[in-house]
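hi!! sorry for the late reply, been swamped w classes. u asked for the two structures so here they r. pasted raw, havent cleaned anything up. first the sequence of the first protein and right below it the tokens
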Amino acid sequence: MQSIGRRSGSVEQSIAVRAAGGIRPRWAIIAAGVVILVLVGAVVIAWRMIAFGRPGLVGTVLDPPVPASDFTLSDQFNQPVSLSGQRGKVVVLTFLYTNCPDACPLITQKLHQAYDLLGPDVSGVSILAVTVDPDRDTVARVRQYSVEKDMLGRWHFLVGPRSRVQPVWEAYGVAAVPSAAGAGQASDNSIVDHSALVYLIDPAGRERVILDADFAPADLVADIRALRQGA
């Protein structure tokens, strides 16, 4: 957008200089038409920026926002937690499992860092992690994981039977498929191939931003603060 502004300025300056030198009226009309076309183009591009993304938010911005599908599952304290119960806060929603060897520990670590970076602003944030491995992730297991990752009191790691968690995956476009070696097995070595996404839901309960596993904690914090301020 800045480059467009510079180009518009250059055209206007060029026209002004030539006008000062006494150009013919018909060329003045043509030049004025060029200015109008440039300005119209700038307006169109600005409109597209507004339609497809809001300045200040990092990640894939959903604009217009999408109402977030509600759900209720049990957390690491065996307490029911619903998405709608977090209304008024910015919700960070992700999908993990305790035996994950790569993306999940990374996302957990970044969420921990973001929590610390938020400082007092964390009171207006709720972090929810939904299991993608309901057959093995019990309340006791996600509690142990939360303790190991120093997230026990920082988030809600949500579990439930497959019949209750699978609709949540589907509502948020999350794939969760046991690997061929792990399909139908209860081994701790079984791997679940799943979408490593982080959703940001605004205080009004609308999906606003999607981040992938490579997000920077500082960017997550900036997005959270922007949504709290009404971005």
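now the second protein. again sequence first, tokens right under
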Amino acid sequence: MAKGDSKKRAEKMAKEWKKSKSTTKSINELVEMGPLHNQELGSWRAPLGESFLDPRAGEIVVFKDFFKRGFEVPVHPFLQGLLLYYEIGIHNLHPYSIILVATFIHLCEAFAGIEPHFDMFLYLFCLRKKGAVGGSKIAGGVFLNLRDGMINHYLRCPWNTSLSEWYKKWFYVQEEPNSATFCDVGYVREKRVSWTD
């Protein structure tokens, strides 16, 4: 990579990502709560002293608030399929989207007794790009939302709750071998027709 390219990437990363507040102690709070395995079993690490993200091979970037909303590692195959379909990484989603997917998976598996149904999900939800006012285009730059007119066809819940500085609580998790979970922390996804069609 040329010096100019390296400098541009560093500038982009500094603009799009905020330095993480995650520490080994704060991540261990998730271990104590239950949604994350201990460091040896879960293969996670805090971004100690990093000015911007630098995931190692096989690692994905996740946010602490994802785990509080139903996210788990290994990434559920249904969520992996959605990420592939929309051509985004897990870090591109807002935590609000994680609870929508986790709830949908639970409703299909526990209530309806079926595998999560991809076409049903696409019928109910679409992917939207976050507004251009402030914030990152990468970290939480897109979110899943009920399609227009679907509010009477799905659960009525306060899905979108306020989160304070969730985008500053990122860390790394080792994903399962052969996982399809995409992780390019500098990738800004352009809107596609398939997000809303």
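hope this helps!! also noticed smth abt the second:
Residues 143 and 188 are 14 Å apart (CA to CA).
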